[in-house]
Amino acid sequence: MSNAKPKDREPRVTAATLARRKRAGERFACLTAYDASFARVLEEAGVEVILVGDSLGMVVQGEETTVPVTLDAMVYHTRAVARACRRALVMADLPFMTYT
Question: What is the pTM of this model?
């Protein structure tokens, strides 16, 4: 475990936070995580937005494309990432054909 000080006291990043930073010309980071361990690393590094991408189909599941990724798989990985995050905004892709 890291000796880094927890960032629990910092306010959560919200869509309004990002809009305000954009208007002010401030940059923010958005990186991808598929599990709690890596999400914790990103959280401790101060990453503002953590994406759970459907690319997990290729990166984690070994698929040729993202098409076979199910909504259940996205929910599973998003929950794991969200459990590790206290400050970062967590967002997730919707898999192919789940949003018609």
Answer: 0.86
